[in-house]
Amino acid sequence: MTWFRRLLPPTAPLVPPVQPVPPASDPAADSDDPAALRASLAGLVRFVNQNSGRLPGESVVTARRIADLLREVIDTSEVRPLDIYAVISVKGILHDYLPTTLRGFLALDPAQSTVPRPSGRTPVESLQEQLESLLDEAASLLSAAQAQDADALLTQGSFLRTKFSGSDLDL
User: Closest Cα to residue 145, out of 64, 68, 90?
Assistant: First the structure.
């Protein structure tokens, strides 16, 4: 394709200027597949572990507890497919809320992490409060997933009783 180059003036660059390209999305972030969610969760746990020296100890423990609850929610998919609302919530915590919270704290100057802000709270206290909110949400999500499994079990039991017990119409 050198014949196109002949049309360019000798001072023109041979390579056109690069246009900004939006970053490619993480395929695991777009997938609702439990295996992809587990892989993303493993990456988040690695992120927490790698930064455990820069995060307050209590916050590391809370972040890991959140990850454990998310893992339990994902594991309910072994019994029945994850509800769409569960998937959306897991992905929100996994790909946005928890990483954003942690990165926000890690971006701070370490000397400022214990200095009270105008709200009266230190960044360490604010981080822990945010993580506890996420922990409560993850616990609620797990309870909802387990309740859905329990409801499905009760529905199945009712079906079986109706199917295999004598009909009310039998004489």
Answer: 90
- pTM score: 0.72
48: number of Cβ within 10 Å = 21
111 touches 84 (CB < 8 A): no
| Structural domain boundaries in the chain | 28-109+121-149
Q: In whole angstroms, give the CA distance from residue 64 to residue 51.
A: 12
Task: Please choose, from the candidates 127, 72, 119, 139, the residue with its C-alpha nearest in 3D space to the C-alpha of residue 97.
Answer: 127
CA–CA separation, 35 and 78 (whole Å): 11
CA distance 152 to 82: 13
Q: Among 141, 148, 142, 108, which Cα is nearest to 125's?
A: 108
Q: What is the pLDDT of residues 62-98, one digit of tens each?
A: 999 999 999 999 999 888 888 888 899 999 999 999 9
